[in-house]
Every structure is written in structure tokens, then in C-alpha cells.
Amino acid sequence: MKSLTKRQEEILLYIISDFQKTSRLPSISDIAREFSFNKRAAYEAVDALIKKECLKKTEKGELLLSDDYRKHLINIKIPSFNNADKQCYVMLKDAEEGECFSYTVSTDEMRNIGIMPGDECIFLSCTSAKSGDIVLCSIEDSDSLMLRRLFMRTDGLFELIPENDTMGKTTANKVIIHGRLILSVRRYLG
User: Fold this and answer.
1) Is it true that domain 74-185 has CATH number 2.10.109.10?
2) C-alpha 180, offset from chain centre
3) Rounded to an integer, what distance in angstroms lies between the CA atom of residue 11 and that of residue 29?
């Protein structure tokens, strides 16, 4: 499977989502309308997905998801860390590493990087992370969950840094990591 640009991935996920809702792949006009493209740009976007072997054309010219690419996508119902089930598309390459869960953001602690209250964040369930990763965590002896950027200091302490200029960092001896952020989704329509 050839790597996709962020925009190509968005278009492909729209195509898959629309297919699941309507049992048909969206037309070039549908894609153009969804992404505010003209039809030529939508055609070129679909053509790029065909060249990257994500889509294929039948002898009649109908679009299909390629068999090879279908193997690399899964549609899973991801359990939410804060008790609500959400449906989300996850690329198998991310899900292969382990279990995933979702978490509905309730604070503005990551607003400087565009993660806002109400956003759905998808995490790879894990107990460790690299310095600089965004994690859902808690500190020892606390039930409070924090969505923060994790840094490990040379003295063995952890710094949990919010992406919000009005909030200060938290320093801790022990951090319990529940997951590493792999995707943030904003729902615009209720």
C-alpha cells in the first residue's frame, strides 16, 4: 500500500463512510461538493487514489475499493475511556500495534494545537510513550485524567505539558499512561 497524503486519506475515509451509509461509492460531484473542489480537482483526487491502488475501476468504469487496500482498513467500534461507545475508522497500521480507545475531550488544555472540548481523541492503548508524545495519563494517587504532552527529564521526573498558554506544566515522579494519541476528530454536526 502506497502512503497517502493527509488530504488523500480524508477523501478516502469520506468515500468509505459514504459507502457505508448509502451502499454506493460517492460520485465525482459528491466528492467535489464535500471538499469544495471543482469536478476536475475531484477527478484528479480520485485518479491519485487509483494510482496509489486504494481504488480501482471496473470494466464498466465503476469505482471500487481495491482488494489490497481493503485489507489495510478496518472499521472498528472503539470503546470510550470515559464510558461512551463511538464509531471511528482506524487504519490497520495504527490498530495493529494494540488496542485502541476513544476519549471525549472536556477541557481546553490542548487548544493551542487545535484539540478542543467535545473533540473525540483516539488513543493507542499503552503504558509507555516517547518524550514529546501526547498521552492520556494520570499521576500516581490521582483519579484525574490529563491529556498532555509528555517529557521525560534527565533527573527521572516527568513533565506533563498542556498545549494552552494559560495553564502550567505538571511535574511528577510517576505517571500512569493510559494511551498515546493517534487521531483527533471534531464533530461539526450533532
Assistant:
1) yes
2) 11
3) 13
CA 127 to chain CA centroid, nearest Å? 19
> CATH top-level class for 6-70?
mainly alpha
Q: Is the pLDDT of residue 92 over 50?
A: no
Residues contacting residue 86 through CB under 8 Å, at least 6 positions apart: 77, 78, 80, 102, 104, 120
Backbone dihedral angles phi then psi of residue 165, each to the nearest 5 degrees? -65, -20
What local confidence, expressed as pLDDT, does residue 81 receive?
64
pLDDT of residue 15: 83
Max Cα distance, the chain (Å):
65
Boundaries of every domain in the chain: 6-70, 74-185
- The structure's pTM equals 0.55
